[in-house]
Specification:
Alpha-Beta Plaits, four-stranded antiparallel sheet, 9% strand, disordered C terminus
Length: 539
Amino acid sequence: MTSLFLILISVVILTSIWLNNLSSRIGIPTLLVFMLLGMLFANNGLWNVRFDNYELAKETCTVALIFIMFYGGFGTRWEAAKPVAAESALLASAGVVATAALVGLFCHFALGWEWLESMLLGSVMGSTDAASVFSILRGKRLGLKNNSAPMLEVESGSNDPAAYMLTVIFLSVMNGSASGGAIAWEIFAQLVFGIGFGVLIGKLAVLAFRNINFQTDGFDSLFIFAVAIAAFAIPTLVGGNGYLSAYLVGIILGNEDFKNKRSLVSFFDGITGLMQVLIFFLLGLMAMPLEMPKAILPALAIFFFMMLIARPAVVFGILTPFKKYPFRQKALISFVGLRGASSIVFAIMAMVDPARLENDIFNIVFVVVLLSIAFQGSLIPWSAKKLDMIDNGNDVLKTFNDYSENSDVTFGRVSLNDRSNWTGKTISELMLPASILIVMIIRDGKRVFPKGETLLRSGDEVITLTHAFNSGEASLYEKTVKVGSRRVGRPISEHPGKGLIVMVRRKGENIIPKGDTILEAGDKLVILNLSGDGLKLRG
């Protein structure tokens, strides 16, 4: 039975990867694909896999949301976010409260729901979804004008704590376990302990990172993995907002310089992607297609109210006083109010809570999230273009911590000897292309910063800067010259295979080859391969 379960997991993951590539080609938001995949396995679905353990789903999604929140901070460059920090903070706090109130009023007066359940639904749907926003902006490389991208990313990455706090408060009120004093304490504890522990754990983690020498590769990733979990768990034990704490720890750690930082951002990008897949697949798996029709009408009403009235009212109300945001920018930010992973988690919290619910909140949230990702998510690039908010000269990846200002350039080293063409010439006499720049000369162990009249000498190490060659069609691989191979004793110019030999590793020495370099048995050839080249070495 275990083997069959593991095979099922493998099939789901492989199918998800294939569907991810397919969705990128046909323009369907990736997370929607995972949700639909879950529905294929769902109760009353194609394979009729029964999964209705809401308590297990809640715990699973809670853990998944920790890493989504942590990465929301860890992957955000504060340098890019700082100019819009105030506006983003207001959208992530006051904006969530206002959205929850407007949606609650709509559910009560338009749909006839009871007051507390109306406000609970508003709280569950109050925050925008970081996973969906990040996925679309990064996947489409959508550069937006006037700092719109960092504003959306910081807002969506930081507004879950406010929605979580509101959800917890209204569930407590519905259970009859919250008085005025208890609610005041709940708000105080959520904010003070969440912020306090977040800053403390973040600073301690930075201090530890600077003083721990990780002897084994990958242990730095495990360390931050543990820090993210602790950032949520510790404040939660004393009533603090664990999601707020995890986000703050991510911000603090993500904006410190330390070894292997870019690889760590990539690691958590992968972990967060897995968590997103898990949540959306789980949502689809828990869906009840046969019960969905009863939820469609209220979900449609709530979705269009949020998209056309509630979200625009909140965005325009908060950003208009700042005077620097044109109408078209506020319209775009209003439209990019996607709902997703956090709403799913909070809806599951409501389902497992003892509070008595009159409406099918889970399926309503399911339909709203489905519409938000499928409809709004697909139309974000189109709406940005129609509103003239696309900035082709602005790279959206600059708002993330795995962006590098010199990611499209590379350094090279040229060693000069008596036979070098550059020896005895000044830099201005070399007539180098504009794309190649000599940035430094290492001469007798000392650094020389060059000028046009700097004379190059034998023995100089010339450091150059030029554009990097990045191509998915190019790769390097290694081939060993075996004893008895027809390559032995022959110059590289007579190399019988396809591909370009760019380096020879011989007895611990790296040799930059020339056409007359003679190959020896045991040489390791580093070969540049271009896909489509038909490269296949013979012999």
